[in-house]
Design goal:
Organism: Agrobacterium vitis (Rhizobium vitis)
Strand order of the largest sheet: 15-17-19-21-22
Number of strands: 32
Mean pLDDT: 81
Structural class: mainly beta
Number of helices: 4
Oligomer: single chain
Low-confidence stretches: 191-214, 216-224
Radius of gyration: 46 Å
Shape: flat
Distance between the termini: 116 Å
Largest sheet: 5 strands, mixed
Protein name: Pectate lyase superfamily protein domain-containing protein
């Protein structure tokens, strides 16, 4: 039978990996027929393109189709990326017939060689520039002689020719920014020259694309410059209301446009109303002490520079952005500020990818509460159009998996980390996360919790499924937690009150309250001041009388007792302090008759009786060996009917007899 050479469904490539400082790598899972079937490229740190490398390819064995290793001419640093792919150029060196019959071995090889070439073509197809399905089947041609840095433009006939140089385009953006700045300055200077009170007048001279002003010599290009409120009569001294001027600027601005509020102080008689979204760029101050700019202006408010905010909002040293929803009513989700990151970056070697990063560097002398990233949800109006429909969340993290993992990856909705570096001392508290829940005097809420962990979905974890899992980092030498759960008073007050319950279970149906079946316990399973429960014994502290107390005094039932139940024919053993047996009760799983011990009230005698399902039940007292039954203080004897003869009733060989007694 011919030797088959099966191939799996793959694209004939190894994942990108980093060098390790050596020159030899492999063997790889990719199989080849010839050493020429391998292409190796590298990309060093700082390089923008991959470079093909000449390497020595060595197959693992003499098998026609086998795995291989590679060797570079020199060592590869651990910062250089390496890519290994299959790259066979097809050839025919042998026929498929032997005499008048097919050579099955040659056929197997030929089919596999063609198969791996088709897989490599599929891989390279995915890396190529593709045409849309409705673009036609002719494709484009690239003109010869393109210079470095040239862009591509589509010319007639589907030819891509050289366009403007990329560096010139990049520089043009800077020219546009500079020109915009010059135009803004020119507008401001023109307004200042006329005493900054420039208002529109219907009778003034007009020109296409220009807005007329009181002074015909002053024109503002409407389509290219942001609108300046000063040009509409705003008073930046705060002496009079600027409501009308701001309203006029808002009316003149197109939706999505910018309105400049220069430095100065502004006061208002009324706020500006409207549903159009514009961008107010604020460099001035609001003279009204009870309001913020976002309370006065509709649209997005961008504060430049330090601003003292009202309504419990802290001051901004650098910049503050304010956005308003303008009374929007919708059933769709709304983002006030979105950052959409399309991530196709490949990071290896322990590197991290971070979507939004704030580096907050506290300098010497920092004190108080320093927060790097803070979300504050402030409810300032009566919430809710639906009962129970409002969930106000200050900070939420979500992680969603839309594709399966083959590498046992991890998914975290929220991850917090606190670390004291080596040899750094003096800190009192280091914690991965703190949750404060406060209801002040006069306030009320049905539920107050520090952490809520609702379960979701329809499937449990296959290895571990827990609301809280206390684990440990994998760092070598990392100390394990001393307490898994601690209720302490290290933070100025006790964690629990005198009427608190440490662990509370609402109405539930569960298998175990505490499962310690897989843990090795060197001390007690449960330990109190005078009691402890271990895997081998229950210890109860001594009561005042010298006995250990096991009490049901606080039971809710009027009459509460203890039931001790064994299994099978198991019995009971009462031992002394030296483990000597004092009382032994043998078990009998089929017993129907039993012994009843009863106490007595004053003047009555305690009793030892038998009870059970039989009509007549004897009481057997059995001694050992020649031992006798000793009753030290006497026994009450029965009498004859005449009352003269004393006798002791007994059973002899199954017959009831009366043993006569002589009184001493």
């Amino acid at each position: 039978m011919a030797q088959p050479y099966p191939i799996s469904r793959e694209t004939r490539e190894e994942a990108i990996f980093l060098g390790d400082g050596g020159s030899s790598y492999g063997p790889f899972g990719l199989k080849i027929f010839d050493s020429a079937d391998v292409l190796v490229c590298t990309k060093a740190t700082g390089e923008t393109v991959w470079t093909e490398q000449a390497v020595t390819v060595t197959k693992v064995s003499d098998e026609p189709f086998d795995e291989f290793s590679i060797a570079f001419a020199s060592d590869v640093p651990n910062t250089t990326k390496i890519k290994v792919i299959g790259a066979r150029v097809h050839e025919r060196t042998a026929g498929l017939t032997q005499g008048v019959q097919l050579n099955s071995d040659a056929l197997e090889k030929e089919l596999t060689k063609q198969g791996i070439i088709l897989q490599e073509l599929a891989r390279d197809r995915d890396r190529s520039i593709k045409m849309d399905f409705d673009a036609g089947g002719q494709g484009y041609k690239v003109s010869a002689g393109l210079a470095v840095g040239a862009t591509l433009m589509l010319a007639l006939g589907g030819v891509l020719v050289a366009g403007p140089n990329a560096s010139d385009i990049q520089a043009a953006q800077g020219y546009a920014v500079a020109a915009q700045g010059y135009m803004t300055q020119a507008q401001a200077h023109a307004a200042d020259a006329d005493g900054f009170a420039v208002a529109a007048a219907a009778s003034a001279t007009t020109a296409a694309g220009y807005a007329a002003s009181i002074n015909p010599a002053q024109f503002a290009i409407k389509n290219n410059l942001p609108i300046n409120v000063v040009s509409y009569g705003a008073d930046n001294t705060g002496a009079v209301s600027s409501s009308a001027a701001f309203a006029a600027a808002y009316a003149a601005c197109a939706a999505g446009g910018d309105i400049e509020v220069p430095a100065g102080s502004y006061t208002f008689a009324t706020g500006i109303s409207g549903t159009k979204s514009v961008n107010w760029v604020i460099r001035g101050d609001l003279a009204l002490t009870a309001y913020n700019w976002s309370d006065i202006l509709p649209g997005n408010v961008v504060n430049v520079g330090r601003r003292d905010m009202r309504n419990g909002v802290a001051s901004s040293i650098f910049r503050r952005d304010e956005a308003r929803s303008l009374g929007l009513v919708t059933t769709s989700s709304v983002d006030f500020h979105s950052l959409d990151i399309v991530d196709d970056a490949q990071v290896s070697g322990g590197g991290r990818k971070q979507g939004f990063v704030v580096y907050h560097r506290a300098k010497a002398g920092a004190t108080g509460i320093i927060q790097t990233l803070c979300g504050q949800m402030i409810i300032e109006g009566q919430p809710g159009i639906l009962a129970g429909g409002g969930h106000f969340v200050a900070l939420q993290g979500g992680a969603y998996a839309n594709v399966s993992s083959v590498n046992s990856d991890a998914l975290f909705g929220l991850n917090t980390y606190a670390e004291i570096k080596a040899n750094v001392t003096g800190y009192n508290n280091v914690t991965g996360g703190e949750f404060n829940t406060v209801i002040n005097t006069g306030g009320a809420a049905a539920i107050r919790t520090g952490i809520q962990i609702p379960a979701g979905g329809q499937v449990r974890g296959t290895a571990l499924d827990a609301a809280i899992a206390v684990g440990n980092l994998s760092d070598s030498g990392n100390p394990l937690w001393k307490y898994g759960l601690a209720f302490v008073s290290n933070y100025g007050a006790n964690a629990l009150a005198s009427d608190s319950t440490a662990i509370y279970f609402d109405t539930q149906s569960i298998t175990h309250v505490i499962d310690a079946s897989l843990v090795t316990v060197s001390g007690a399973l449960i330990k109190g001041k005078t009691t402890s429960l271990t895997e081998t014994e229950l210890y109860l502290g001594a009561a005042a009388s010298g006995y250990a107390l096991l009490s049901l005094a606080n039971a809710t039932q009027t009459n509460a007792g203890f039931a001790l139940r064994t299994k099978g024919n198991g019995g009971y053993l009462l031992q002394g302090g030296s483990s000597n047996t004092l009382v032994q009760i043998n078990g009998n799983s089929s017993a129907v008759n039993s012994l009843l011990l009863s106490g007595a009230n004053t003047g009555a005698a305690p009793s030892v009786a038998v009870q059970g399902s039989d009509t007549n039940i004897n009481l057997s007292l059995v001694t050992k060996g020649t031992g006798l039954l000793s009753i030290t203080t006497g026994v009450a004897l029965g009498t004859t009917s005449a009352g003269a003869t004393r006798y002791f009733p007994a059973v002899y060989n199954g017959t009831s007899v009366n043993i006569l007694c002589t009184l001493a």
